[in-house]
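FORM 7B - TANDEM STRUCTURE REPORT

SECTION 1: FIRST PROTEIN
SEQUENCE AND TOKENS:
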Amino acid sequence: MSLPQPATRKDFLPAWAETAGVFLFLAVTFWIIRYWHSGAFGWYEDDLTIIPRAVTLPAPDLFAYVWSYIYHLYGHARPLSDSMIYVFSHFGWKLGGIAGAYWIGYGIQVLNILLFYLLLKRVHSRLFALTGSLAYILFSADTTQVFLTHSLGLHPSITLLLLANHAYLSGRKILAYLLAFIILFSYETPFLLFLAVPLLQKDWDWKKIKEWVFHGLILGALLVGIILLRSAVGEGRVEGLTPAQMITTPILHMLQGPPVSLGTYFYRPIQALGSLNLEVILASLLAFLAIFWALWRTRPGFVNLSTQTVRDAWQGFRPARLAAALRRGEYPQEIPPEWKALIRLAAAGLVLLVLAYPLTFTVRAYAISGRDTRVHAAAVVGAAVLWASLGTFAISFAAIYRKKALAVLPLAALFALLAGYGFVIQRDYTQGWQLQKQFWTEIQPLIQDAGADTVILVEPTGLRDTRQMGANTWNLPRILNQIYTFPPDWKNPPRVYRLAPNWQNQILTEDGQFQINAATSIAPPSLYVTADPENVIFIETKTGRLERRKTPLPLGDREYELKTVSSPTLQAYPPGFLYPLLVQEPYTY
């Protein structure tokens, strides 16, 4: 039995008030599922490379640095991405410490949600816009939305994309191309999505093909120009690709990425069910009620169709009729215009989804965990348009037969579990920051005699890891010199390295030195070193706690003497910026 149809918005609020109410609903929903625990979030991986410098620079020095960064095309020749991280994190710190930057990151993404909602609303209906916007904010193929390096440096590119789409559909094409071009100097993966913007227009005909070809030629010229520019300035990731890789990698990613990003809409709910606790259960239940109410009260897209019209329309999908119509380059005559519009938008969504992956050269397109899921960041637009099309069709079709609840209930349930999974992601971020503070607090009394040329190796067996955001991994060598202020004349300050699995088989050089490289450690290549064992502090973790090895380290058929414990000196150096953030006193020597 279907529930009674709700009254339309005309009985209650003007259109602008309804839009404001929907946007408030979306903004609050996004905050809850991604930022509810943001007060316990910290800095992770790339954050710890950029943000400490950004927040400690005086504003004039910051802007001078950013200008130099842009002028010289640093940052893989896309300087705007890192520059925005510097600027936004600097002022975020002044606004409210670590939490201030998260507020700015949230603001950027809420702006994107508003722009996306308005974009979908201008190409179809309120139900289409609401369903697509919910799919946008619940998109979980990319689990790095709150990661400051991405919310401050990547997501502004999506802002530029959405603004360019609005400008193009409003007839301001010069402005649209300018905004799209700027994407290539920021985070480039959303750029190609702009190729599909003509498909969002309400009417398709053969005249549009000429427009689309011309549009593609302009974008192709812009892209080729940027590739040549990056090659000219020696951008490593362009130089490192062979011509064959530049062709095969985009094709492979376009085949791998879309099924993965769409599949996570069903896989993440399964993961949420496997990670149930009271918080996830409550979040899912409340999300179900809110999403069901929002979808239920929104007017379906084609309520004026009769059941007979629908039956006739299905005849047009018979294989013979459909094939004949496609040969003529048209829809079967029986298909209602309302359905044709959704079919066109679904096709546009699929094109947008595929175009999210050709520029993702450096990360595997099937990633579903950790920082590598950024490969799916631009796919949110196409995936959400597809969900908007499917959801609008299902709800509107069910409403014709007065069975609207049969469509709204399963969609709300699926979205509710996706909301619950948002708390699983937040749990990883919270634990990741706690694990970093625990590590640096616990290691302090064990390395107090570290000095110039000291290498600290951490055996990783007992280290705890989080799935969605790395803690104590590749960025460890960059932390200790931010916890303490070492003499500037030290060429090789003490550094902490996390050893890689099976490090024992690769670490020795022919002359008995320890080599720290890609085979033995998780560290940036610029910080690879070769160390005398007598300058090495070896930290064991097998017991679940950090312990310094004080006996020789057996490797192969020999034992190697390590750095002997001497008088503590590390604490004598001035504390650095990260000391109060990562070291929880008191601890004992």
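SECTION 2: SECOND PROTEIN
SEQUENCE AND TOKENS:
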Amino acid sequence: MKSTPGGGLLLLRRKAPLTRRSVAYFCSGAHRYSERRNSRVQVHSVDTVLATLLRERTKHRNHNIKIILTFSKRYRVKIDEYVAVNERPLFVDSLLRAVDQLWGDKRDRGPDICCVHPGFSHIQTISDGCALILNRSSQLRPVAEGVCFRDDATIRRERMAFERIFEDNSKGQDREIDVMIKRIKTLWPTRGVVRVRALSRSSD
């Protein structure tokens, strides 16, 4: 069963998703990444919907929303398609600003995160009423297909597997945010990105 934009949008209307994502969706309009992606692909972006949901439901600390950030090789390939070399510092700045907006300067709001890559062939987005399982054939290929499960037994099994990976790999929220910020700053290991001004207070 092919995954569809409609299925993703329906899923994200639920109240407590667990999901694996890249980082680009944190960037809320400060850079033209999303606009370029949407004009080329011309289908609804689940990342955009998720970004809206996060802003609406994480104004305080929200332990019900958990995100595994993979920083996969595919992510670099993806953003290289839409971010020009001379725009990389702006893109990194945009992500760092979004981190401060979402988690706050005291890290007292936002969703739980864990920076780990559990693999490329079983990509979960789970809510109260649905488990969307996507897969890709290799590390650098885009997502090819997926299945949306709505039976309670499968949702419970996928949720338990997700939370086990999250709990076994998390180093604590503050440490995970620090790891995320470091990886954002080194998306492109060149002098231009390394020298980008640190906007996040936790990196001072």
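SECTION 3: OBSERVATIONS ON SECOND PROTEIN
The longest helix spans residues 152-169.
DSSP finds eight helices and six strands in the chain.

SECTION 4: SIGNATURE
Preparer initials: ____
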